[in-house]
Design goal:
Blueprint (H helix, E strand, L loop, with lengths): L1 E7 L7 E14 L4 E8 L2 E5 L2 E5 L4 E4 L5 E15 L15 E2 L13 H15 L5 H20 E2 L9 H17 L6 H8 L3 H12 L3 H17 L6 H7 L5 H12 L3 H7 L27 H11 L11 E5 L3 E4 L5 E2 L7 E6 L6 H13 L4 E5 L9 E3 L5 E3 L2 H12 L3 E6 L13 E2 L4 E2 L6 H19 L1 H4 L3 E4 L15 H18 L7 E7 L5 H13 L6 E6 L1 E2 L11 E2 L5 H15 L7 E7 L12 H13 L6 E4 L31 H9 L5 E6 L2 E6 L2 E7 L6 H4 L18 E24 L6 H6 L9 H10 L3 E19 L4 E8 L3
Parallel strand pairs: 10-30, 11-30, 13-14, 14-17, 17-20, 21-22, 22-25, 25-26
Antiparallel strand pairs: 1-2, 2-7, 3-6, 3-7, 4-5, 4-7, 8-9, 12-27, 15-16, 18-19, 23-24, 27-28, 28-29, 29-32, 30-31, 30-32
Amino acid sequence: MEFRHEVISFPKQLPIKFFLHRIGHVNRHWHQSLELIINIKGNVHITVSNLSYELGPGDIILINSNEVHELHADNATMIALQIKLELLKESTMDIQRMYYDCNSARSGDSERFKNIKRIVAQILKYNINSNEYIDLKNISLVYELIYELCSNFSSDKEEGLSYSQENLDRLSRILDYVNSKYNDRISLQNVAKAEYLSVPYLSKYFKTSMGISFSDYLKDIRLHHAVNDLTNESLTIDKVAVQNGFPNVRSFVVAFTDKYGEVPSVWRKKHAGEILGSIEATKEKSVNYYQDEPLSYYEDISAFIESNLESAPVNLPQRVGSSRTSLIEVPVSNCLMALHHHFKNFIGVSRAKEVLLADVQQALRIAQEEIGFKYIKMHSLLDDDMMVYSEDAEGKAIYNFHFIDMVFDFLLSIRLKPLVQFSFMPKLLASNLEKTVFYNQINTSPPKSIDKWNQLIRALTLHLIQRYGLGEVKTWLFCVWNEPSSSNLLFGFSNDDIFNKLYLNTYETVKNIDPSIPFGGPAAFSTYNKNEDWLFRFLAFSRAAGCTPDFITIHYYDIDLWDYNGQDNQLNLSPVSHSFTEFIDRLKQRLEESKFDSLPVYLTEWNSTVSHKDLMSDTCFKSAYIIKNLTENYDRLDAFGYWLLTDLHEENLLPQQLFHGGLGLFTYNNIKKPSYHAFFLLNKLGDELIARGDGYFITKSRTGFQILLHNYHHYDEVYAQGVSISISYHERYSHFPIKSRKEFNFELSPVNGNYDFVQHIVNQQFGSAFDNENSFGTAAGHSVEEINYLRSISVPKLSKKCVTASGSLPIQVILEPFEICLIELIERSE
């Protein structure tokens, strides 16, 4: 299998493409470009024109034009540059016909390759922190690289095999035939007939050209595809064998064992934890977000750059440009829409048991006092650490709802109503004790007895009604399970019928107690490029089965799964800045088309990423991201439940670093992040929208006007592809294009009288706890005094002045990159 992640795609006019490889297996292929490969981690077995080499860390090899080559490695990281020599039109010599002998694996002179590594390190460094003139630098570096190859590695004699174009064309046709029909009963005779060749001639020709017999090559291709199919749990071993062209399962098992050293069933079980996110028969790609994510090449690439650059490092100046808007006239008598502030309908805590932690309770109190959310989303209400379910010696159920009562008592005391999510599975009810997730080994298998499950749900629902009263309970929301659309190795099940049955039984159990109790779902998982087919299949089922939810819950993360291979812990982010709006557009359109648009839609989880280790989550990037997406989609859904409240949660081991990239609005010791301040400012908006546009959102209230501004910048394509090369604990703003200040010019009219002009600012200087900590010079081991100091200084800048308007009020504001700003114009009574 090949896992390729393109880091830098140079402009079309440049003769080079730059890749970062995380290699599994790349079958034999060729191309007209030169390919320079530098192995920076692990070991690689590479075959070039039937000659094999072992590349260790630091080894370098150049593959000449039209040389057939293949690569194999269990886990290696490599840099690869493809150079299209035909685009070097201005060269005075015919360098396309030159042969280069550049292979450190068979050379004892490591010094000979230093210049090539230095040039590649420069290419990396300059393009990580590029500016608008980067093309000029790239051109100079490409020519310097070609000069180095021509000067020190050109050879008069080609070693290995050389291929004519006619030879390559024939090989290409043969391989295309094999790759398109590998799952059929093809043979050497079929190919010989298609090429009008005799079988003996073709057999010898293929072995000479490819260095492998036709039958072995065909077997390798079939095994290559079979390995991918083994990641699909719904396929039996027999099915994998048949659909990949093996005549029977025995021949498949023998071939697989010879190549991989173990039978397919053992391989599948051993690698199950590495293939979360595989495409299952009834699901789209899902994502493993509870392991160490995202994949970062930072350490490997940084080490390569630092060790191969000359003593003078490449430092690119940080340039901040500027942009301004033309005069924006704001008629204050306009009312574009009434605002209901649905962003406050939900907040999230990871697990129910965490609500009992003192620091989590403190964070909830602060959020309720300063913002005031309505509902709270949390899972794991039925986990074993809640001690809900046990059985006596005869297998009779014993219920204990004490911890649930403690959780709900606290939530109600701070005016938060629960989304009662029945999840996950108590161990004594679990059908599969090995199906667990997270550090706490939460069981996510379906119940082994649906009757016992129904009895538990009935007992708990009746208990809640008895304790809190039916009138109160009917103001809550109920649902079952979390992200059943995800992989069977996460929260989902091996097929949709299992969840549909669980949902139907739970729905009917609650509705049989009282049909007016709100019951919804299904907490479907959606992403930037993942359609909502699963959600609408479920909704179609619920309509047909008479159990249509009273409300729809959905989760959205701005991640990109097209290239997610499931084997690495990589998470790709959305490459575009408007993907959140696109998601809401397509969701609302499909709800209308399927006639489910009358149902409330609660987005109970959303964020830019699912990673608990994305270092930008602690920065002002996230506060600008929140303001941009909520103001552009204000009230379009019935809830925007930001995930999540605090970094103090139990899905992973808690990192020692204070600002480790957690998803929380608070750090684990309740220091407010810029993301928290974003919600604090949103909460000051009025109830009528009078103007909106690129970067601004203006409202009015009984007391005056509110102008909310943001200067959002989207990360670059490198970071979007999950490769955080230049980011580090202390440097977190490097993966952005040219950053610019943004100037706004407004004129509000008609406005008369005196107003207090109150300005709140959150940027890297004000309100960013991470940036404040950065000035300490240390990332861990803070004293109590330092923590308290960070907490006290990490607040938005607040300024106030009096302004007078006579017919109109001009306002000019300049925002720094990632800055958010709220201006309150409060009418003075005197």
